[in-house]
Each structure stands twice: as C-alpha cells, then as structure tokens.
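Worked problem 6 (solution included).
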Amino acid sequence: MSATEIDFYELLGVSRDADGSSIKSAYRKMAMKYHPDRNPGDAEAEAQFKACSAAYEVLKDPQKRAAYDRYGHAAFQQGGGGAGPGGMGGADFSDLGDIFETIFGSAFGSGGGGRQRPRRGADLRYDMQVTLEEAFHGKDAEITVEVASQCDPCGGSGAEPGTGKRRCELCGGHGKVRAQQGLFVIERPCPTCSGRGEVLEQPCSSCRGEGRVDKEQVYEVDIPPGVDNGTRIRLSGKGEAGPMGAPPGDLYIFVHVKPHTVFEREGTALFTRVPVSFTTAALGHTIEIPGLDGETHAIDIPAGIQSGKQLRKRGAGMPVLQGRGRGDLVVEVQVETPTRLSSRQKELLREFRETETGEECPESRGFLDKLKEAFGG
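Solution. The predicted structure is:
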C-alpha cells in the first residue's frame, strides 16, 4: 500500500460528507494535539502535524476537495502545480510521501527503491509451573523448547554452501514492483524475492532456503526468589531464528505458581487459617506455624480472641522480587465449636453455664439488649 492510498478524511477523523465547519474544527483539534510547540523534539508528532495540515489544505478548498473526492491522491500526482483536474492552484504535495513514511513506516513510503529489511524471528512463550516453595526460594530450572533455529550447514543464509545470492531479475534489486490499477499505481513487495532484492543461487538442501530448521533447544532458566503468577522472564535472542540470517526473537518464560495446601498468597503476604478450640480462644495460647523458610514462627493468641481475627507476623512472608526484605505472615483465627464431648466435659460446661452472668460475652449481651429495646422487652 502506498502513501497515495492514505485517506485525508480518516487523517482528520471526519466523515466524507462533513461540512467545512466540521473539517475546520477537526483540523484545529489535531493541530493543537500535534503542534511542534506542544511536542518539542517529537519528530513523529511534527510529521503528523504536517500531514494533517496537508489534508486540511485540500479539504478546505471546494475545488481541491471535489478533485480529491473524484480522483483521490492521483489528482495531485498528475498535476499538483495546477495542471491537474479541478486546478490545484499553488499547493505543493511533493513531500506527502516523506510525511506518511515518517508516520506509518517505510511500507507507506513513496519511494520505489527501498528493500525490505529481513524481519527478526518471532518471540516465543513458555509456561512454567513452580511450587510456592520454589517461588519462595527461587530455583535453577532447565527447559526444552522446540524452536526454529539457525541452519548449521548454511549458517542461516539459506544458500547451499559454496553458493551465494544474486540480484532479483524481476524487481532489478529494488525489492518492490509496481502495477497500474486504473488511476492508481500500486506498489508491493516483489513476489520473487519477497522484498529483499536478492534471490539465492541455490537453496540450502538442509533448510530449503529458509536459513532455519526446527530443533530442540535446552535452556537454563534462573527463577528468582519472590516470583508470582504472571512473572515474565525474558531470554534475549532465544526465540525463533529470523529467516535468511535475520536476528532471532526472544523467549519469554511465564511463571505460574501452583496452589498450596496451607498458604494463600497475596503479593508478598502469606495467609493461612488456623482453627483453635474455644478454650484456647478464651484463655489464650501460643501456637507454632512452620514457614516456607524452614523456620517455626510463634504466634501469640490473646485471651478472648474472636473468630475471624487476623494476627500478623512481620517479615515471615514471601521475599520481595528483585528487592530486599519479606512480606508478612497473616494468621486468621477460626474458633472451632467442639462437636464431640464426653459426659464429664458436658457436665463441666453445664456448671460453667450456671455461673455465667452475661458479662463474659459482651457482644451477645449487647445483642440481647438491642432485641429488648426493639421489641419492648
């Protein structure tokens, strides 16, 4: 696709039936957005500003707009200095190709001699599962990936050893060919050389001219302490080899942490729920929780603790990824009501109930008081 196919209406963001006022308003908005004074040193913004100005120069003039609506950019190619249909006056559009090339890349440029650069190889993704313990300590892992790698016999060139490349006869080494379609001249990459301007004298018999073959590659991966779900590790240059000797892409390792039977993770914090008997909750106690670090962490349960209360142990959670320190260990207490009592235990509980005054459980007492107040005793 060439620069002549870029639509002026799309550039300003207006419909083809927009009136002059709408076009002027749209241009002012775009000009304010991309004006060089507002984007100092931004070459792309400056080019966009020039392109919008060129589009407005055409669409604001009824004669020029009519010619553009009828002939498109071909009107300017055939007489930009005033000889074209509708009379273009003194408007100069000779630099439109450069403007569009700056904004949209060389594929939209107006020049016919630029070869396409070999594209780098594709990036690859590898999903790795680790345990929470491995995420805590980190690990050195070894992975095997089937990847398009550089062909050894031809060194990635795609040419049979002892042979080379020659200029493409179809495009004359330019990498592009042109075809007339009505009023438009369409420029496309050369179908013979795929835009490279060169063809192989004899394709490599091992890779059939691709310069790469599928191989199993083994890579060492350093999993740092503190990784979490979605952590991405980049192995530069370990993706697919580029065609015809082009640079390789990258390999991205996406880490997935398996669920743990005891701990749940939120950032650098570790959560766990600990059931305690109602006597422990009433009298208080110290419990011990084994941590992922191999240490045993003492958690003091205060007397009278309620179910759902969270206790925090500073610095006993997950390591900070690529940083210092650790998060916290958070213990949520769940008071468990006994379901299997001996006759003696039931007897003791009945004796205890007979001694209750209501002050032992202030929340229950308060709720009863609210009921009395709401329903008149």
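Discussion: Residues 350-375 form one domain.
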